[in-house]
Write a structure and sequence with these properties.
Layout lengths: L3 E5 L17 H13 L3 E5 L20 H7 L2 H8 L14 E4 L5 H4 L4 H12 L3 E5 L22 E2 L4 H6 L10 H7 L3 E2 L10 E4 L2 E4 L5 H11 L1
Helix pairs in contact: 1-8
Length: 227
């Protein structure tokens, strides 16, 4: 049986201010998808509400828009996957060896408080499967609790998009909260690279996290190595 990966994507298309668009940071999905695909893993897309996934406009511009993202957008079958994502209630967590939370600022809104995603994540994690995220994807882990009521990320080494990077990206006034601070408040042992926007990934047991869009490939490679 091939390994099976559940990739989590967003349904949100804008910040609190609807004039500022956001969505899935496409290369964070495509880099990981490519790594998993090369290894013959089966992949499924799920989102908090199911259905269509908006794309982050900034991710479709140079230097973020690379060959894997271009190839995805040029493939009607791949684009159709983003129009028809599964809902959490459609997913049987026992079918999956790993869950991978993609990012984009949009996920700050719909990832943290999805009971369905939390349930899937908890089940995969507690039976020794891999829980992983890249960039803002860690917002999907912030409120996930284990069966004993503790936060999944409490006491765990991890990373995710840094507050310094929010400032450098000039969105610190747009985002709904400081995700780095929220992770620390839940007991996470948050780490980041010495320089912003360079690839950085952290493994702690069966938790694998990447810091920013440039970390998606490395994060996926570490997930694949564990599988």
């Amino acid at each position: 049986m091939p390994r099976r990966i559940l990739n989590v994507v967003t349904n949100v298309g804008h910040y609190d201010d609807p004039e500022h668009l956001t969505g899935l940071w496409l290369s964070e999905l495509t880099h990981a998808w490519h790594v998993f695909e090369e290894r013959g893993f089966e992949q499924t897309l799920v989102s908090p509400a199911g259905g269509a996934v908006p794309l982050e406009p900034r991710a479709l511009k140079f230097p973020n828009y690379d060959k894997t993202a271009k190839a995805w957008r040029a493939d009607p079958a791949k684009m159709a996957l983003l129009e028809n994502t599964h809902r959490p209630e459609d997913i049987n967590a026992s079918d999956y060896d790993a869950i991978f939370f993609t990012g984009g600022h949009a996920v700050m809104y719909d990832f943290p408080d999805s009971p369905g995603l939390q349930s899937i994540t908890r089940e995969i994690y507690e039976r020794g499967g891999i829980v992983s995220s890249v960039c803002h994807g860690y917002c999907g882990l912030l409120n996930t609790q284990l069966s004993d009521g503790s936060y999944l990320i409490a006491g765990k080494k991890m990373t995710g998009f840094a507050w310094q990077e929010e400032k450098l990206a000039r969105v610190d006034k747009l985002v709904p909260y400081n995700a780095e601070q929220a992770a620390k408040q839940r007991g996470a042992l948050y780490e980041k690279a010495k320089l912003p926007f360079v690839s950085y990934a952290v493994v702690d047991g069966n938790l694998v996290t990447g810091q920013n869009p440039g970390s998606a490939k490395e994060t996926a490679q570490k997930v694949a190595a564990l599988l």
